[in-house]
Amino acid sequence: MEINDPAIVSKAKEIQALFKDDAIGKIKFVELENMHITLKFLGNISMDIAKKIYAILGTVSTIPQDGFDIDVKKIGQFNKSVLWCGIDDPHGIIAATQAQIEEELLKQLKIPREKRPFEGHMTLARVKFLKDKKQFVDKVAQFKDTYLGKQHVSAVLLKKSQLTPKGPIYTILQF
In angstroms, how far is CA 43 from the centroid of its own chain? Predict the structure, then answer.
């Protein structure tokens, strides 16, 4: 699910700037045009499997025809290695969609479920290493209640990620 509302992207840029401090450590920021919510990471799959997954995504029935809104809010971190923004989905549509995708991928393609529970989020940065863990944790806590904005979601997209030295290049796949 893409995050492309201009207000959210602008606020994400501001938050990233707050963590661009060499004293904290080396942090790789997600490019603003690549902001998204991952429902299922698939890893390296063939185009044949991608076509089948695309067809499965077309059967996901949890998203209302006119879409729905989520709030992007809260700044947090996973194990001091990922800086993220949380998602508030009051009707549980993202979680239901993710669960249905997991179920169908397992049933139809034998793709195993995620071991960790799903936690909808938008990654802002990946931490390569921290020079000052306390400063990082304190800064995350300082902005934990930040509200970035409302995003309208109308579809689940299948994206291909090509890793390059300058960062990933995402391509939306359609068959």
Answer: 15
